[in-house]
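Q: Got a minute? One more chain.
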Amino acid sequence: MTSIFARMVRRSPSNVVNVPSMDGALKPNRALEDADVVTELPAPDSAVLSKGRLVIASEKRLVEVALKGGGISVLHSLPAEASCMCTLPDGSFVVGMVDGSITVLDGPFAGLVIQSLGAKQIVCPTAMHFVDESNIILCIGSSVHRPEQWRRDLMSQGQTGSVWKIDLRSGNGTLLANRLAFPNGVTLTKDGRVIVSESWKHRIVELEPSGKLKVLLEDMPGYPARLAPTEDRNGFWLSIFAPRRPAIELILQEDQFCADMMNSIDEQYWMAPALYSGRDFKEPLLGGAVKHLGIMKPWAPTRSYGLVVRLNSDCQPTSSFHSRGDGNRHGVTDCVEIAGHLYVVSKGGNAVLDIALTAKEIQS
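A: Always. Here it is, folded:
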């Protein structure tokens, strides 16, 4: 603890903590907080468009959500909680679960279960995207920690993630990249390039055929999650599941402090990012986040936040939708654009939101 306070006092260039401000295309607003709620679900996580249907992974279920009225119907019950999914061109689903298994539902590969890739057991499936009718790209966030242990992976400075291409016909995988800091989203460009979000390095990278990483966007003010192509495929939607905060960035520089915190304090009370906050009076507070006269200010620096960013074809931000410190639509993990509407998954807010896009947002 002494070293943290000393670091704050010394303020030498090597240990000054800087988190980029939200400005320009990331200027805060209330778009997520004011959005229509399509439906409420327990801990919704992934979203896909399958044969015109909006399908959401919520705990141990895949549910179809009616775009009008918000009614839900259960498509599949799962043996474990879903941690990611994608849909194949034929409308079947590939689902990654917190127990590390990858399962195909429906279609010609129905019943296929993949639990390892070569000699490596799958531990933490975080995101996937189809390549064609029999191949997918899979992100494995960590080789040590399960998906629900993402905070422990962050506070441990985890860099054991990898990205694989999997042939569903054979069940074999080809390693595309490894030693990544929690890859947590993947998509393909119109010309087939693989784009990945790397959460703990706050950036988006392209996986080049040579195996090298090309940085497309870096130093984001939050931890990026899933990537989804816009409907016209001229850009991307990026979900940010938690904000970066100077106090947490400072703590991340102190390995011993992080180890002591993880070994002695219940995880929900760590000074770490969260999918939601303000529900328990024992949660840690950041400076400025104390309510005044019973009111939480919008700009209060909470451990959770809601944010979706529109990226152009070069992965540069052009617009964004927010749920600020005083909001409840935090922990955004995924979204999908359908017919001029953006359907946003707020895992921290237990809701699926509907934002009607303007012509400028669609064409930017």
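A: Residues 23-280+296-363 form a domain with the Neuraminidase fold (CATH 2.120.10.30).
Q: Perfect, thanks.
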